[in-house]
């Protein structure tokens, strides 16, 4: 058998031929998995202690610092965990952007209007619905797994987000929500 070698950069898996018989009739090949960093980034936005209307931005523009391991890096969003200290279990959409959506104004408790120049920066949209939450005595949490949303940051290592109310929750404290993203960085 002839042995082979390979080099792979910034890949989660690589096809490789381990060897061939000298007569060339059979290739022994497979897939090699390459280790990638699994990180959690989180944001606790300052939200309105009071009612939201359907279509309102919840918490303004969000910054998920160091979602990638370097400027221009990327990864795969594996899961999202949202904790809700107010037990509202609200239907929410999380829009994620590859760079700062700086062309629009995204104010907490105001109607969302994503600017056309920011819309092209969207890399993922994740919906959280009431059925995703598990309630406890006076709070709730939702965990969405196996999201598989790939992204590539542009101009930084950060992802940016907008949390949008799809129902009218009424939060009791300005720190009721925390959003965590579990990311497999490249």
Q: What's the arrangement of secondary structure elements?
A:
Elements: E1 2-3, E2 13-20, E3 27-33, E4 37-43, E5 57-64, E6 74-84, E7 92-97, H1 116-119, E8 122-128, E9 133-135, E10 140-144, E11 149-152, E12 159-165, E13 177-185
Antiparallel strand pairs: 1-2, 2-3, 4-13, 5-12, 6-10, 6-11, 6-13, 7-8, 7-12, 9-10
Tell me what you see in this structure.
By secondary structure, this protein is mainly beta. It has two domains: 2-33, no CATH class; 37-185, Jelly Rolls (Sandwich). It is 2% helix and 45% strand. It has one helix spanning 116-119; strands at 2-3, 13-20, 27-33, 37-43, 57-64, 74-84, 92-97, 122-128, 133-135, 140-144, 149-152, 159-165, 177-185. The strands form three sheets. Strands 4, 6, 9, 10, 11 and 13 form a six-stranded antiparallel β-sheet that branches. Strand 2 (13-20) and strand 3 form a beta hairpin. The longest helix has 4 residues, at 116-119. It starts with a strand and ends with a strand. 28% of the residues are buried.
């Amino acid at each position: 058998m002839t042995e082979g070698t390979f080099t792979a950069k910034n890949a989660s898996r690589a096809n490789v031929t381990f060897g061939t018989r000298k007569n060339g009739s059979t290739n022994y090949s497979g897939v090699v998995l390459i280790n990638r960093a699994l990180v959690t980034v989180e944001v606790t936005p300052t939200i309105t202690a009071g009612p939201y209307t359907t279509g309102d931005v919840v918490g303004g523009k969000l910054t998920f610092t160091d979602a990638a391991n370097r400027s221009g890096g990327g990864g795969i969003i594996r899961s999202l965990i949202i904790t809700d200290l107010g037990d509202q279990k609200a239907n929410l959409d999380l829009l994620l952007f590859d760079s700062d959506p700086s062309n629009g104004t995204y104010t907490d408790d105001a109607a969302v209007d994503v600017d056309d120049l920011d819309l092209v920066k969207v890399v993922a949209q994740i919906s959280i619905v009431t059925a995703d939450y598990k309630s406890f005595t006076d709070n709730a949490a939702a965990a969405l797994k196996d999201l598989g949303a790939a992204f590539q940051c542009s101009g930084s290592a950060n992802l940016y987000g907008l949390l949008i109310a799809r129902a009218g929750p009424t939060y009791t404290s300005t720190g009721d929500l925390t959003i965590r993203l579990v990311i497999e960085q490249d």
